[in-house]
């Protein structure tokens, strides 16, 4: 539903679950959750902020705020740092 609304409004939508799945794969050496299986720790929040920042910058330079498909963020994420 949120993805559909974002698409209709022409705004960027980043799915937290998909982003965290990518981050946990790309940065598997880091512990990003607080241990309760739900909340992030400081490193997790930093990774999420960087991931969202990359998505925003990529969309700005592309000249649009398109809603990425589920695999798009996984394919374009950064693994540096």
Describe the structure.
The chain has four helices and no strands. With 81 residues, the chain is mainly α. It has one domain (2-76). Helix 2 (16-26) packs across helix 3 (42-61). Residues 76-81 have low confidence and may be disordered.
Highlighted features:
mainly alpha, single chain, 4 helices, 81 residues
Q: How can the largest sheet be summarized? A: none
CA radius of gyration is: 13 Å
Strand content: under 5%
Order of helices and strands: HHHH
**Using DSSP, what is the number of strands?**
0
Gap between N and C termini: 34 Å
Shape: globular
Classification by helices and strands? mainly alpha
Give the helix level as a range of percent: 40-55%
Query: What is the typical, i.e. mean, pLDDT?
Result: 78
The helix tally amounts to: 4
- Unreliable segments (pLDDT under 50, ≥5 consecutive)? 76-81
Number of domains: 1
Secondary structure: elements and pairs:
Layout: H1 2-9, H2 16-26, H3 42-61, H4 72-76
Helix pairs in contact: 2-3
Describe the structure concisely.
This protein has 81 residues and is mostly helical. The protein has helices at residues 2-9, 16-26, 42-61, 72-76. Helices cover 54% and strands 0% of the residues.
